[in-house]
Design a protein that fits this description.
Layout: H1 8-41, H2 49-70, H3 77-94, H4 96-104, H5 108-127, H6 134-151
Helix pairs in contact: 1-2, 3-5, 4-5, 5-6
Length: 168
Amino acid sequence: MQLRSIDKKQYRSRLKNTTIFTIIILFSSSLSLSALFIELMGKDGQSNFGFNMAGVLITLVLLALLTLKFKTAPYFSEMYYVWCIKFELSHINRKIKAVETAAKNGNAIALDTLAYYYQATQQVWLLDDNTLTMDEFIKKENKFKQWMLDAEHFPDVSSYQRQNLQQF
């Protein structure tokens, strides 16, 4: 997954609108389906928990199907991009200790992977306004930059591929 520049204002606006829409749909559809099930199949004096749960689950399935169908639509492109980047970062996080060890030893693929990791993490954190741990992040990034200088390697972020993580 290649990194690209996205408009933060547009991303945040669309994410907010999508979140609000999802909450409204989840709430209204779950209640409507639950009420319909209770009206059609409910009995006096019985618990309606099962009908309520069925309404919620059916709505969640419908929202998941809508997400799969529209995730690549132009309106959702920024959100889908961030979702994919977070997915890549989770793969790197699973192997971060081994990648860091290899980077300390001058492994070019590890250095490229860490360059991608730090650049992508910084982009996602800035888009999501997650600046609480930015100081710690900068310290780690500075260590990485020193490993880069020690190895005399200038990483190419565009060369990152998830399958390269298999060697760590």
